[in-house]
Design goal:
- The structure is a homodimer.
- Chain A is an alpha+beta fold.
- Chain A has one domain (5-145): Roll (Thiol Ester Dehydrase, Chain A).
- Chain A is built from five helices and five strands.
- Chain A has a five-stranded antiparallel sheet, with helices on one face.
- The two termini of chain A are 16 Å apart.
- The A-B interface holds A 32-36, 38, 48-49, 57-58, 61-63, 65-66, 69, 76, 79, 81-90 and B 32-36, 38, 48-49, 57-58, 61-63, 65-66, 69, 76, 79, 81-90.
- β2 of chain A pairs antiparallel with β2 (81-89) of chain B, so a sheet runs across the interface.
Chain lengths: 149, 149
C-alpha cells in the first residue's frame, strides 16, 4: 500500500533494524570515502582522538538511510524523493559489532507552494545502539506526492 | 605540514577532483544503502520521477567527503574531526559518467567554549559536474585543534 501526503500526520513514527556494523565493512567504507586514522585500523585508530576503531559518520548515515527506507517503504512507494538534509549530528561513536536501530518521526508537514501536486515532509531519524545510546540524529526534507483524486 | 586553528582564515578555499561517477558503482552503492528505483537500473529509473538512472545523494555526499579530505589534508593532519552537518542539498542530479569536482571554503571560525584546546570551523563544500552545474552543497562543522605552544 502506498502512502500519499494526505495519509500522513505529524508524530507518525516508523522503526527499523537491527543492522550490525561489521568491522571489515567499516574499514572498507572508510578506505573508499573517509580514510581517516580512526576508521582505518585498530592500530591507526589508537593514535587518533578516539583511541579505538570507530565507523565513519557517513557509513552510519548511509546505513540509517537504508533502515529508514525499509521502515517507511509505503511512503517511498508513492514516489517520494529526498529533497535536502537539514542536519546530521553524531553524538556518540559507532564501534565494530554495534547493532543499530532507527526511529523515524514526522516532525512537520506542509504543502509545496510551487508544486501543487506534492507536499513536504520533514522526517527526523534517530539511530541508536543496542544499549539505547543515540549515535546519530538526522533531519531530512522529503517531497511526497499528493493523492491523485 | 599540519594546519591548526590559528592557521585558518574565513574565505580560505580548497579544490579537489576530478572523480568520475561510474555507472556500476552508482548501482552497487544504491543496492547497499539507497535502493530506490531511480538509482538501481536504467529500466527501473525510467518509471521514476527522474526518468533516468541517477546517483544516490548519499553516494555524491560520500564522494564529496573523500574529495574534501584530499584537498584539506593539512587540516585533518592536525587531528581535526567532523562534528556535525548543518545541511546538504542536491539541486541537480548526478548521472553515470559525470565528473565531479569540489570547492571547500571556510565560512566561519570560532573558539570552542567548552574545550579551550580546539576551535570550530564551518566549511561549505560545493560539488560541481564538469559543465559547472552545482549538484550538491554541504555545510559541515569540524573541530580543529589549536596550536600547542
Amino acid at each position: 500500500m502506498s502512502l500519499f501526503f494526505e495519509d500522513l500526520e505529524v508524530g507518525q513514527t516508523w522503526h527499523a533494524g537491527p543492522h550490525t556494523m561489521e568491522r571489515d565493512r567499516i574499514v572498507e567504507f572508510a578506505r573508499e570515502f573517509d580514510p581517516q586514522a580512526q576508521h582505518l585500523s585498530e592500530e591507526a585508530a589508537a593514535g587518533s582522538m578516539f583511541g579505538e576503531l570507530v565507523a565513519s559518520g557517513w557509513h552510519t548515515a548511509a546505513v540509517s538511510m537504508r533502515l529508514m527506507q525499509q521502515a517507511a517503504a509505503p511512503i517511498l512507494d508513492s514516489g517520494a524523493i529526498g529533497a535536502a538534509i537539514e542536519g546530521i549530528s553524531w553524538p556518540e561513536p559507532v564501534r565494530p559489532g554495534d547493532v543499530l536501530r532507527t526511529e523515524s518521526e514526522i516532525v512537520e508537514l506542509r504543502l509545496s507552494r510551487s508544486r501543487p501536486d506534492r507536499g513536504l515532509m520533514k522526517l527526523k531519524t534517530t539511530t541508536r545502539r543496542a544499549d539505547g545510546v543515540v549515535v546519530q540524529v538526522m533531519t531530512g526534507v522529503i517531497f511526497v506526492p499528493r493523492r491523485n483524486d
